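Weekend entry, working from home. Most of the wet-lab plans are on hold until the incubator is repaired, so I used the time to fold the two sequences that have been sitting in the queue since the last round of cloning. Logging both here for the record. First:
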Amino acid sequence: MVRRSEVIDHPFRNFEHAGWEQAAAAYAETFGTVTSLFAPALLDAAGLRENMDLLEVACGSGFVAAAAAARGARATGVDFSANMVAEARKRYPALRFQNADAEELPFPDAAFDCVVINFGVHHFPFPQRALCEAHRVLRAGGRAAFTVWAAPEQNALHGIVTQAIREAGDAGVALPASPSGTVTETATCRQLLLEAGFDSSTLQVGTTEALVSVASARSLIDIFVTGAVRMAAVIKSQPREKLPGIFAAAEKAAERYRGKEGLRIPATAILAVGTK
């Protein structure tokens, strides 16, 4: 049995917590419309079937748990943001949601058949601790699956905004850094699963893509500002006089993705899964 983890205080955790508490009310209608596109692939990777017990960690507005319930699973969601949990309960009152940290789950060993984390791992200060907890609460043969964003160079959704800030804004904004480094590479995701105790012969780590429809690059930036945390902080910190240049650079970069129905920008994620 993996020893239960304990939450360690860290400025990165405090920054993330404050940000998600603030973004909770707007998330479902903004950046949640992006992350929800990956829910079907995540649940498929977790091997979800009817009558399974599923835990969604970092559940946000609860849409992955709701999608699991729609497939006939018994779904539970947890999030360290009380405001996010309140939003999930409001949207899906028939499901079970509770306030809890990914690194200290309030469940006994072997309580679930599946654990899923949709774009949460890169927000954890100590992701290995969270994945150890996921391993602990899984039953033998159960799967954990998670998504994280690919690096901006491989992910146009983030790359457009990141490059626009580098070109026309201030890219040197000081934000609390993760003590565990970034999680934007397949090798890092694989290593996290291995170190958490998942069977090495079962690991599957690759990329998956969804197309995000937006009216303009300015609309994309607005989605980040109102529904994200780290990118929102970078954008909000930009000097007012530099914003027009950032918007123009983003619009120019996004034009390559324009079709008859507007912009359809590729969002690329890493999808990682392991079996206990």
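Second, folded right after the first finished:
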Amino acid sequence: MKAVKVFSLFLLVFVLIISANCVYAAEAVDDPDNNAGSSRQMMGEIEKIIYGYVSQGGLIERLNKVEEDLFGRGLPGTIAERHAAILNFLDVGTDSQPSMLFKLGVAEWVVDKKINASVSVVKRLENLETNLTGATRTGNPIVMRVESLLATLIMDPVMAAPVTVPANTVLKFRFLDELSPGKSKAGDVVRIELTSDLIVNQHLVAPAGSLLLSDVREVKRPKRFGIPGEVRLSFFGLKPLGPQKIQVSVGKEAEEAIKEARKVGDRGEGAIVSAGAATVAGAALLGPVGLVSGIFIRGNSLKIAEGSVTYMQTAEASTVAAYPIPEALQVSDHSISAPEPQSSNTPVNYDPNRDTIIKGDVFNRNSYGMPTNSGTINRGGEFELPPEQQIN
């Protein structure tokens, strides 16, 4: 049985290679100089996903090591084709088979009811294996280790189904890193995680621990004569189990959730970062949709501490690939139900300690196909805060 399963996985990889026609490979053929740059970028992205860091050395040696660690053997094709196939396998998948990161996330969620998206595949696997068996299975191909874990945890194969997450669904996030004008640098990756599961009609869209993709857009250090420092963050969307990103923004629903959370205190989770001017951490969330979405901090000593929380909402309805939760693992009805608001004045009934459970006819029966918003990041134009949002 295991031999058949591993063979099927390798067959999937070869199909991805044969059908690889991604933009990276096309650009590589047209532009040899771009080939080198794209290959280095893709190699670094693959290594960061698997190991958590970018290795040194030649591209061929690094690529051979990744393939051996991942599949137990090398793969045919050009460097660009092999890179494209590996990235598709790791993060995109096909209509019939979800990606490896999707499957790994499901395994983590079944065990811990959250995922560890901020750490490498290798570390996530080691943690899971240690928790389940008391020992790691280093030396075996990563693909085989993931499939072995899933076979131990659940009976049926992991599949993906398309669902639509309604607009204005409120989500709670926690900062995993401290931010301040004195310590932050432009280009720093900022880790911000979802604090509870996002579930649509018993389909797991984004488990707790899913990351809101963000980095430091700009830093201005404090200057003489009392001129305060500034930090601007950009948000590039919530990364769920599937490859499609979910864009977030600030609106009335998120602001109401912040007000409700403040009424009951922070529950020991740290300061609540608000969307208005009078904020706990001296920060303002940027919106609305169409502008650079992120966070603006201004002040010499102000900071967003590690563990601070904030609330945002989905910017628009998004169709994503999700995991159909088996009946034995389904969340009971006492969790929050968050149907799509009928208007901007819809009352918010938000409990920050419960998962976001969405019920109703929000399925998209069409094939979700390739992601439509997972390509090149669009930072938008420059956006200056209105004076009333600047915090002195």
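Plan for Monday: verify the second prediction. The longest helix spans residues 32-50.
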